[in-house]
Amino acid sequence: MAQRQPRPTPEAPRPELGGPALRAYFAITEAWGLKNAEARRLLGDPPESTWYKWKKLRDGQPGRDVLERISYVLGIYKALQILFPDPTRADAWLRKPNSALPFGGGSALDRMLSGNVADLYVVRSYLDAQRGWQ
């Protein structure tokens, strides 16, 4: 009888998710024109050596927190592409001042760069609401 593989736990994400998640993340941060410090901050400031290894190899085994952050970034990117069919406009929206309540006159990127995963959630939720997903 074949042995069953243990189910992944929240503390141990599936290792095969790391490479695709990181490749998608770096493609998005490049489309957004983020500097290394900004892109690293969105992931919760992983150690520099880890960051540069991930960036060079476009592969790795990020932990649950990093994968959660990447998931929010993917959702934000997707929502922007739906709301703004012009990719240039969609990518530029992040840096534009925004008077909507969650941003208080700052940009969505300013909010996202606070370092808190909750702020990624707020931006994603705002965009999902704008496109009618609540």
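^ that was protein a. below is b, sequence first then the tokens
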Amino acid sequence: MLPRSRTMPSRIHHGAFEERQDIRHYLQVEAQPKAHSETEAINIQANYSKSFDDDGRLKRTGTLWTATAHVITAVIGSGVLSLAWAIGQLGWVAGPVVLTLFAFVNLYTSNLLSECYRAGDPVTGQRNYTYMDAVRANLGGRKVTLCGLIQYLNLFGVAIGYTIAASVSMMAIKRSNCFHKNGEKSPCHMSSNGFMITFGILEVFFSQIPDFDQVWWLSIVAAIMSFTYSSVGLSLGVAQVAENGSFKGSLTGISIGTLTHAGTVTAMQKLWRSFQALGAIAFAYSYSIILIEIQACTRNLLTGFGFYNPYWLLDIANIAIVVHLVGAYQVFCQPLFAFIEKWSAQKWSKSDFVTAEYDLPIPFYGVYQLNFFRLIWRTIFVVTTTLISMLMPFFNDVVGILGALGFWPLTVYFPIEMYISQKKIGRWTSRWVALQMLSISCFFISIAAAVGSVAGVVLDLQTYKPFKTSY
């Protein structure tokens, strides 16, 4: 049997250390010890402040750089890869306008949300370590359950979207090499299933990283990859414009009557595709759903140029996408992992299977603290998201649905309602009315995006065979 490890620091109780074992460390809240003399109080206070925050938790180890890496990894993800398709649907006028409006809305509401990191006083108030904690402190009631349901369902969906996006980039590498070898007229058809399984296997290993604050190095690597493939995409776009001597596309986007892989675009399909594009753009700004957690610690962009040379440059960019999505998957899933494990540790606090951790020596790494519940449930989670991705490999449709489901409630509604509650903004005041108008407008945008994305799924299902999707 592996040696059992101590899963949390020693608890301080009246100046003495009491060893606590087999309780998950994120449940730990330290009580500042009481001193018996003034001198002892000074010494204890000094040592205590070095180890714990003002709310009794262990000092946070995150920095501005690690937080920035998390944000970049979350923002420049698979959502960016669908923007070319989205702008193609809306055209050169509506596309940039919608993109800019979403950016301003997200920036504004994210600032409102960050104001809710502490309950009460924004400087000295109690910290809210998760999005649900912030909703609980400011709104309470059933809204907490509703928020949790939407947030964690959205995070689950993001994992599916990232699995699909990574498989598309993996296929792009193989297809570009196939075209380079056999010519651009070669069909080079292949299935996405093997690539999704490969990505799933990678995530099984990386999902065993215990906590959100321990994936900072993966986020830094992912952020570097983000800049890599974004730079390649921009460079290829500029090169294509220079080669053509003009900009392609139209002011109103894809035209009625255009022949696509799904058939001829009808007037109704044009409407649905435009609505779906709203969802895709909304998804590109979906990092608000993990902003509090950060604060507390297929038209693939590179396969839609119409050419596959220089193939080696496209390979580098697509490899960068895959590496980035490996990290982004963890950034979005770690809050969901923590929620399930915290809830399980509270419900089955006496179960060794759920709470006990064991020291597992790993060569060239050190000692890894193995928890059997974490190992099994996270593996099941990754396997489930992989299987669903193989069942519904419709990248743009999935991205649009996720954007529609998450944008209004998590990016707009809850931040606005929490801000109104915290700042005690009165009903029917000018600011209250302005905030409500913003919320209602975004609600209708989310409804339109959801309708368009569902219509896209229905269209794709007409030619769909489970586990037999190929490109």
